[in-house]
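@channel sequence for tomorrow's demo:
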Amino acid sequence: MADKSNQNLKAAMIIGIMALLGLNVYQFVNNRSLQNDNLVKENELEMLDKAKTDLEKQYQDAMVELNDMKTNNAELNTLIDSQKEELRIQKDKISSLLKDSKNLGAAKVEMANMKTKLQDYLAQITKLKEENAVLTSANEGLQQDKQSLTMEVEKKSAENAQLTEAKRALSTEKENLSSEKTALAKRVNRAAVVPVAKIDVEAFEDKDGKKPNSVTRAKNTDFLRVCFNTTKNMNTDAGSEAFFVRVINPIGETQAIEAQGSGVMKSESTGDNIRYSTKFETDYQNEEKKVCGDWKNPGAFEKGTYQVEVYNKGYLVGTSSIKLK
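structure tokens (generated this afternoon):
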């Protein structure tokens, strides 16, 4: 029995020793793995830190290069500022990628792209500056040509100054003479106006085949007869003389029908255009003469007072009126 107990104890001790050995082996392997993982993570962190440092340096160098390309050309400077903004946006994108080591590869690709983009920007700016230099040179040549032309023009202007002044003086004198001539013609025309007297307006009703009857009611009126006497004016040349008659209805409207000879004349007193109803022409021999004419209204005459104005040579020479019941 004692031998059997000793054997069991030995077996238990062996098993315990083997378990301890296994546990030590596991801990050794596990510690070794943890050490390797830590080394990998430390390496990744170092690579991330280096990438961040490289990114910041690359970005700052790019800003310096772009700023150095600026000139006094506002348009070019605006382009450079927009390029700087694009690089800033790309830098922020790369910075976001560098927050996780898994994106390190993608971040390096973006950094390479940013470097390529900078080179493209610099090449574009260099080309534009060269083109601007060519344009500036051309502009300078044009300015020189302009100065030469300006000097030539000034020389010609100086040579023509006296001629221009003489021409201006002649033009002013011509305008003065024209104004005097116009004023004189207006005075002559005004002096030649033929005044009229004894203006009489009468309403008539047409009777088929019979002499028209004089009426006083609007509903019976077919036409108005206007008569007046010319007066003597020796300032007027003898011959055909026109008198323009304006018939104004009770509401202030000028009666005018083109088919019956109505038209527009110019008032010499005001310069305004005046519509007239009809025109009477007569052979004027510098003496008193009775002139008559009719105004027919195709529509009905209205109740009220009709005003009649007579014009000669653009001047009002007489007025009258008639009241229709």
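heads up for whoever presents: The two ends are 167 Å apart (CA to CA).
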